[in-house]
Amino acid sequence: MPRRLTAEALGSFFLFAGVLGSGVMAENLADGNVAIALLGNTLATGAILFVIIAMLGPVSGAHFNPAVTLAFAIRREIGWREGAAYVLVQLAAGAMGAWAVHLMFDLPIMQLSTKAREGIGQWTGEGIATFGLVFTILALVRVRRDAIPMAVALYIVAAYWFTSSTSFANPAITVVRSLSNTFAGIAPGDVPGFIAAQIAGTILAVVLAGWMFEGGISPRTSSPE
């Protein structure tokens, strides 16, 4: 358990620092071009996701995300007490990642975001983003475990651009991003709506993946009629 929690802490630290730090750097270099800033933020996030999942997955399962932990707890593949410890570590280490970014870029360490992200469009985007992320993981755990690092990284890269919310898809990083008044931030008052949508997307993904992959699958040798 100490090794698992340490892996979750390291992964969450670097994931959250990667998201927020690349957002700061991208905004500084993009000269006001929001599309270029988002592209830089996207590529860095996908890259760090691949690295930390490939590196730490064999130790803790590479959750780094309470939505993923919740999914496995619902499926009884992780105990609720262990899952609660995972979530606490994800939040604490993620907050330290945010504060490290502020320190690196000479920003006030303690701050709150003022960036509004609210409304049915944003919540729908978060629900879809989280559903897709969790479903990707649950599907590949059954059929292609070795593909998870690349698939998750590529999914998030895509979801940054096809969802209205730019795909937070992670309750812990949603909370931590409210502590950073930077490019990737979210106003604290908008956090509950995002988390509710993320939980809904997670539950739907668990239900659908459980039904679709129940008992495993058999490879098809011919096209369906």
Please characterize this protein's 3D structure.
By secondary structure, the protein is mostly helical. It has a single domain, classed as Glycerol uptake facilitator protein. The chain has 8 helices and no strands. It has helices at residues 2-29, 34-60, 66-74, 80-104, 120-143, 148-162, 171-177, 191-212. Helix 4 (80-104) packs parallel to helix 7 and helix 5 packs antiparallel against helix 6 (148-162). Residues 218-225 have low confidence and may be disordered.
Apparent shape: globular
Q: How many helices?
A: 8
**What is the CATH H-level superfamily?**
Glycerol uptake facilitator protein
Largest sheet: none
The CA-CA distance between the termini, in Å, is 49 Å
Count of distinct strands: 0
| Pattern of helices and strands | HHHHHHHH
Q: Taking Cα atoms only, what radius of gyration do you get, to the nearest Å?
A: 17 Å
Q: Specify the CATH architecture.
A: Up-down Bundle
Percent helix, as a range, is 55-70%
**Structural class of the secondary elements?**
mainly alpha
What value does the average pLDDT take? 93
Q: Low-confidence spans: pLDDT under 50, at least 5 residues?
A: 218-225
Domains, number: 1
Q: Using the coordinates above, name the CATH class.
A: Mainly Alpha
Fold-level CATH name: Glycerol uptake facilitator protein
Which percent range describes the beta-strand content? under 5%
